[in-house]
Amino acid sequence: MFGSLFEEEEEGFSLAPSGGRVVKREGEPPPPRGRVNLSGIKNQGGTCYLNSLLQTLLFTPEFREELFSLGPKELGCLEDKDKPEAKVRVIPLELQRLFARLLLVDQQSASTGDLTDSFGWNNSEESRQHDVQELNRILFSALEHSLVDTSGSAFIQHLYHGTTVNSIRCKECGNISQRQEDFLDLTVCVRGVCGLEGALWDMFVEEEMFEGSNLYRCGQCDQLVTAAKSAKLRKLPPFLTVSLLRFNFDFARCERYKETGRYTFPLTINLRPFCEQTEDEDSEYSYELFSVIIHKGGCYGGHYHVYIKDMDHLGLWEPPEEDSKPKVQKKKEVRVYPEPEKDDPLSVLSSIITQEESRSMLLDQLGQRLMDKIGSSWSKKYRKLHGPIGKFLQNHSDVFVLVNNGTRVALKANPPSPVTQPSSPAHTTPGPSSTPDPGSHWFDLNDSTVTSIHERDVEKMYQGKESAYMLFYRKTLLRRPSGALRNPGYKVPPHLLEMAEEENRRLQQRREEFEASNNSVELRLHLAPRYRLENGALKPISIEQKEATNLTFDLRRTVGDLRMIIYQNLWDGDMALTVAKSLPAGLHLYNTLTDDEVSLYSAGILTGTDLFVWNGREVCGATVQTGAEWEPMLLTVVRPSLGEEEEDGGGEGEEGGSGLSKESRGFAGRVTLGEVREALGEPQESLLCQEKRGGEGGGASGWRVFPPGDMQRTLKELALKDGDALLVLEPQTQDSRWAAWSFSWGWLGVPLANLPECQALSCVCVLPPTVCEELSVRDAGVRLMTSLSLCPGTAPKDTQLFLYFSVGTAPSSGLEGEIIVERSSTVKQVGNDCVSFGLLVGLSGDGWHLRRLDWCEEVGEALMDEVSNQNYKMGCLDADWSIQGVIHDNPPGNAC
């Protein structure tokens, strides 16, 4: 899987990497270590398995001290790795540097980039997910290869090497054939085994029999005989690595799967029952757990992290966060322990198994021996209180071990005394003690994150998709010297100490520079003498004068410090610093900074904040109101006006049409609508209207008159905002040239016949066609400020058409007239009506016909089909009685 991952060139041990790493440009410096004071390792993309193994090796003190004992004379210098004649052992050198950074450099996490470069990884290799068990073997092999001909060439073997012996004993002559095997880690089965001790029992205690059709050829007897095959641990290493076979293959489904069942492993284990030599003291066989590499996920992908016991107390262990939460006090359970012997099944079963030479027996034999001993079966004596015998043995895994798929039971090497340490049937969780040694602090190292955990959290990794994958034990005889406790620099070479100190100095400098730049804000200072109060907002006195003075300041400094800087350079007399904001109406003031002891950051000051410097009372003699409730708004004041007034009125809006003047005015948010009318110089009889926007089209759809009650409400209460239009209508007078009426939206549905009579304009204009009285004002196209002409005559009905016609050889050379016809009339009937009208004014002749006249007064072709419905051919038409006579859509011009 890893291929040439750790290969180095034979000459000089220098590397030719297949691809270089992308060097990130310097930006934000890495954060310092967290509260636990331990450094994590960055994930380069799928390198969590490598990070977990490296952290385990780092927290194996004997490993890192052996590595640190190799100096530059033996390993060379990384600066010379590109020199052909230099022999530089890159992998151990980069591993030394990484360990030194993890121990001494004040950063949250270290990078393995240089180390993986020494492996020869390219970017695609880094992103692949590998197996940590295989990585462990290949890494050790690469280190041994790198350290050939150095004093550390054998330190991997010294720390991790062990041997097993496989024996086959002939049942006929007693001859024993043996074969020794070396190991750096033990691979144990998970499937069908309830825990580590059961797996070791199957491997090193149980015998495999050659019998029946499967006989063994004995070299001594020179014939096929019955024989027994077994294995034992011959040499125990100081550090025992155990790999759990979590991944299996389902031949029925032809797919891999992960074993997620319960698989226990103890915090301390005695290997005496599994060893060839058992005469030494118990301490020689005793191991304690110090690292658990955990895999989370399935067989096709997942994530690794590691639980590690800090042997040298380098980290600052503190209770996990959940311990600080209040917990409900549970009522203490009172246990009544049974008397020993017959009333105590634990004592009875332990005594039965102890009588066996192998300290084990088949489960069905145990039931028979129990009946012989107490004269009763398990079901009659204990089942009601303790459940089935198999479940009872599982619940007391601190005493018993089930092997051979649960068919055989054995006693642990050092079981607790059943009398002095009784167990309750309710106690179902074997493994770590619930009251760990206060000095045995465990940490969860998950890439860059390091957190404290309890020792009892290890047992949560017995089963599930997130479960133990590799176990690391150390002999309990290995004691750490007092000088190593809480001393991360213990036995670190001087040149690596200097490297770490230099990196810490650079990091500190970068952090200071970054903090200074990150906490610097640009403030805009507005000085009161440069402003005046106008329409509720502050505006500059002079356009040419600079409004604000820019000032760069540190957020961590106090308001008092800022005040002193302003005093020294810009201000005399009483000073108030008030947060300001530029609004469409002008500058407005909000909260004043009153506490000189707080920092600008605590005061909520950000970069780009506007600060107004004044005496806190007035600006140019005018009292200034502060706060969000007095926030000014810029309104558009609209008034009706004639053409010459429009030119002075500030422009014409899209929906306003001709005859409207607009003016932008600012008003404080807390002034009432009545005060606005007064400020505009309008009498109390004037009407104020608010523009109503259409819901869909977005254009103006009309105006809403403010009722008298709204005159006492503030602009804030009326929900007015910047840019809103306010129409001012003066009271109606008898001599007024304009007549104005104010309606809500409903007025657009009023029939034209119900409108008051309009005064005729004294100007000359072109009249559009007369419209039906039944049409609504909206359908008739009447808008605000539309001019209406009141003409004599009856208006057409909705079934009639109002037509203009002219008689002559040219559209403007003959007689003009008006006629109302039915919509169902034919062209010939319309022509006859026009002839009848013409006879009344002295026209004669019978050769008249109709032609269409368009809006450009261009004469069209004659209307030939005189029997067709004229409404089908034309709308409102003009008729012409001559050869050049024309019926047209719009009048060429009429004066009123």
From TrEMBL:
Catalysed conversion reaction: Thiol-dependent hydrolysis of ester, thioester, amide, peptide and isopeptide bonds formed by the C-terminal Gly of ubiquitin (a 76-residue protein attached to proteins as an intracellular targeting signal)
Classification via InterPro entries: Papain-like_cys_pep_sf, Peptidase_C19, Peptidase_C19_UCH, UBL_USP40, USP, USP_CS
Native source species: Oncorhynchus kisutch
Entry keyword Acetylation: no
The organism's place on the tree of life at top rank: Eukaryota
Family: Belongs to the peptidase C19 family.
Regions annotated as coiled coil: 497-524
Name this polypeptide is given: Ubiquitin carboxyl-terminal hydrolase
The entry's keywords: Coiled coil, Hydrolase, Protease, Thiol protease, Ubl conjugation pathway
Domain USP as annotated: residue spans: 39-476
Biased composition (Low complexity): 428-440
Any one GO molecular-function label of the UniProt entry: cysteine-type deubiquitinase activity
Enzyme Commission number(s) of this protein: 3.4.19.12
PROSITE patterns: USP_1 (PS00972), USP_2 (PS00973), USP_3 (PS50235)
Compositional bias per record (Acidic residues), positions renumbered to this chain: 1-12, 643-655
Any one Gene Ontology BP term: protein deubiquitination
Chain positions covered by the region annotation Disordered: 1-40, 321-342, 412-446, 642-664
Gene3D superfamilies, A to Z: Cysteine proteinases (3.90.70.10)
Keyword Transmembrane helix found: no
GO cellular component: cytosol; nucleus
